[in-house]
Amino acid sequence: MARITAGVGTSHVPAIGAAIDHGKTGEPYWQPVLAGYEWTRIWEREVAKPDVVILVFNDHASAFDMRIIPTFAIGCGESFKPADEGWGPRPVPVVEGHPDLAWHIAQSLILDEFDMTIINEMDVDHGLTVPLSVVFGQVPAWPCKVIPLAVNVVTYPPPSGNRCWALGEAIARAVASYPEDLNVQVWGTGGLSHQLQGTRAGLINRDWDNRFLDRLVGDSDELRRIPHLEYLRETGSEGIEMVMWLIMRGAMGRTTRQLHRHYHVPASNTAVGHIVLEPVPTETG
Length: 285
Hints:
The protein has 285 residues and is of the alpha/beta class. It is 32% helix and 21% strand. Strand 9 (256-267) and strand 10 (270-279) form a beta hairpin.
C-alpha cells in the first residue's frame, strides 16, 4: 500500500523564489536563509526519494479570488502550470500531478465527511513553487509527482487548527488505503510569524515561532487547540498560515521524530521556518 514516510514544513516567502530565479542565492543576505535547506535537499535526493508529495499551501489570488473561496481544495489534474503573479510565471518546471491518488484521496476525504473542492485546472503560485525550489533546487523537472492541496487562510474565516489537524489524520487514512506501493510525503507550507500591512507591519515573534516548531515534535497535540485570535495576536495577520503545517503534522500520526530544523529572520519582512519530521511507528503499526 501507499505510505506516508515524512513530513516537511517550510515557509514560502515569495522573495526567496525571486532570489533563486535571479541568481542572488550567493549574496550574504540570502546565504543563511538557504543554507538551512541544504541538509533537506541532499536527504530528499539521496535518502527519502518520494514518489508523491501532497503539498499543502495557500493561493494568493492567483487561482481563487472573491468569486470563489474554497476552504479546502485538492488538485486532481494531470499537471499545474506556474502562475503569473504580475511579473510573469516563475521559470520553474510544470508541476506534474498524480490524478489516481488525488482522486482516491478526494473520495476518501469526502466520504470521511470533509467537504473538499476538487480542482482539475489550476495555476499554482509561489505558495507551492517556492517550497519545491528550496527543497529540490533548480531542476529541469520536479523529481516527484505533486498533489496540490489549497487552504483558505486569506479571507476570514479560515479553518481552525483542530480541523486542519483532523484533515491531516484523514489524509493519512486515505493514503494508507491506496493499493499502489508509493512513498508519499506531506508538506505544510506558509508562515511563520509575519504581518504585511498596518501598524504592526514587519512583526516577527521568534519565541512564539520556535515554541510552535518545538510542539510539532513528539506526541503532543496541543497545537491543534490554538485559537485564531492567538495566531493574530502573537504572529501577525499572516501568521494564520501556520494552520497549514498542522495538516502535515496530523498526517504524521501520534508521534513524530525531528530529522532537521532551521529558523532564520528575516527574509524580506518575514520569519523563515523549516522542519523535517518522520512518523514514529506505534506498536500496532
